[in-house]
Amino acid sequence: MFGFNQAPKQAATKEIPAQPGQRPVLIRSENLNKTYQMGEVEVRALKNATFDLYEGEFVVILGPSGSGKSTLLNILGGMDTPTSGQVYVQEKELTSFSDRQLTQYRRNGVGFVFQFYNLMANLTARENVELATEICTTSLNLDEVMGKVGLSERADHFPSQLSGGEQQRVAIARAVAKNPLLLLCDEPTGALDFETGIRILELLKEVNLTYNKTVVIITHNTPVGAMGDRVIRMRSGEITDITVNENPVPPERIEW
Ligand SMILES: Nc1ncnc2c1ncn2[C@@H]1O[C@H](COP(=O)(O)OP(=O)(O)OP(=O)(O)O)[C@@H](O)[C@H]1O
């Protein structure tokens, strides 16, 4: 095992410095490049991406379609490797991990939330969350997490008996219950109507604060940037801008 998540089993609200730069660095990315060779054509999906992610911060990565957001998220999540450059997670070099180490990292270190919830259709909401916690080492209390995402009453329902927003809540519970170092969310509101999407953003913010989890959202939806502690903007594979929001906007005040 690799000591990725040493936090206690119960949720703890911890005082954290307000400014991202005052928090400990969780992930350091240096000069990340990703090039795809498509026959004669080279696609440079990432160009010299250098940035840090801090413990307990809420980061929104914004960029239009094709700007390299998913490529970046997949590398941070240990699902893909860069063509060159390094990623360090708590000072361990992720980019030199063996396959076995990467599996442990994906299992224990990262909670994934996708646009389409990827739930097991033949398992109840609770069982979907339980399945994820069974294979990892430091999971949180299942019932507490189900309550936190507002699903105590729906825990025995199957995905087909749940609305899209409720299914995304299950997916968030599944990611959080593993008690990972960070949550990586790929267009988490992309399949939801506006109101439901806002509720999901509120839940992600609550998870961020309650469990002091680093949350990274990637989206092309510019207004969502207002809720981040920091916003990383991407275009054509490059990080064009990193800004600190002194006063992040609560999700209920975001409109699109
Ligand atoms: N497996 C692949 N093979 C070849 N090219 C790829 C591959 N994956 C991504 N690309 C290319 O890399 C670039 C970045 O893609 P990526 O999916 O990271 O962008 P994105 O910002 O996440 O886009 P979207 O919001 O549409 O998902 C695009 O030009 C894309 O076509």
TrEMBL record:
Keywords in UniProt for this one? ATP-binding, Nucleotide-binding, Transport
- Segments forming domain ABC transporter: 27-256
Q: Which domain of life is it from?
A: Bacteria
Tell me, what is one Gene Ontology molecular-function annotation carried by this entry? transmembrane transporter activity
One GO location term (cellular component): membrane protein complex
Similarity comment text for this entry: Belongs to the ABC transporter superfamily.
Q: Under which name does UniProt file this protein?
A: ABC transport system ATP-binding protein
- Give the source species: Anoxynatronum buryatiense
